[in-house]
Amino acid sequence: MNGLFIGLTTLDLIYLTEHFPHSNEKIVAIDETISVGGPATNAAITFKHFSDQATLLSVIGNHPISQLIYAELNDYSINVFDLNPHHKKPLPTSSIIVNTMTGERAVVSINATKSKAIINNGLSARILQNVDIILVDGHQISTSIMIAKEAQRLKIPVVLDGGSWKPGLSKILPYVNYAICSENFYPPNCLNSLDVFHYLKDIKIPYIAITKGAKPIQYWTKEESGNVEVSKIKAIDTLGAGDIFHGAFCYFILQYNFKDSIIKASQVASIACQYFGTHQWMSKIVNG
């Protein structure tokens, strides 16, 4: 199986602390790690852990930080197509504090607004050869639209990681087969989950789910709707749980039905939350 993941790549500086700092407070971290991050990037790493091949379409660029990113992606055997290999500015860097008591995290970062790029039509067709599934995280809108249009023609399913609403997403949604959104995803004029379901159903997206952290996942298809319970765990670190969920979902949906794929992806994300950092869990789950 071969997955294509389009979106944001970041460098994450992650600190584990006993509490979030107060105003003007200096605290000493219990632990720290530096890792590649970003929704599409973490999803690609997760998918590759279970599957044969994962390709990341993102801006990595040509900056000293870029070399760190390339080295780690190489460690995870991720195929990289750099949308702007001559980009000399640093990639977005996220500073993240994880509360060891609750597993909750606080994140300060910027998105891909300073590193937007677009792929040409010829390359988009070539990249889609032998691709089984595509994920877009909304951070490279122009490229995502071009790829999603071609994917529809080729009948390659497209998964949306709807972490939050982003300008331009409305142009991608008509090509989406699976919309997996967080409870913070609010399209225009939507105030609650019911509004979001109606909005996405009106666009004729056939499979929709909304994740709500530790609360049950709501899902809808033309045949059924309902809730999927989330495993009760002692969370160490919830950072990247949604990204990991999406990457695992892309793997499972190629083998199982929608509900079962949600269940299995949720189980993987729950295991990941019991380890510090976004990738340490992978040593505990060998395969799907």
Written overview of the protein:
- The chain has 288 residues and is α/β, with parallel strands linked by helices.
- The protein has a single domain, classed as Ribokinase (UDP-N-acetylmuramoyl-L-alanine:D-glutamate ligase, 3-Layer(aba) Sandwich).
- The chain has 7 helices and 13 strands.
- It has helices at 39-50, 64-75, 121-127, 141-154, 193-202, 241-252, 258-272, and strands at residues 2-6, 10-17, 31-37, 53-58, 79-82, 93-99, 105-108, 133-136, 158-162, 178-182, 207-212, 215-221, 225-228.
- Strand 8 (133-136), helix 4 and strand 9 form a beta-alpha-beta unit.
What attributes characterize this protein structure?
single chain; 288 residues; alpha/beta; UDP-N-acetylmuramoyl-L-alanine:D-glutamate ligase; nine-stranded mixed β-sheet; four-stranded mixed β-sheet; 7 helices
Q: What is the percent of helical residues?
A: 25-40%
How much β-strand is present in the residues?
A: 25-35%
Structural domain count: 1
Number of DSSP-assigned strands = 13
Give the C-level CATH assignment: Alpha Beta
Distance between the termini: 13 Å
Secondary structure category:
alpha/beta
Shape: globular
Look at the structure and name the CATH superfamily: Ribokinase
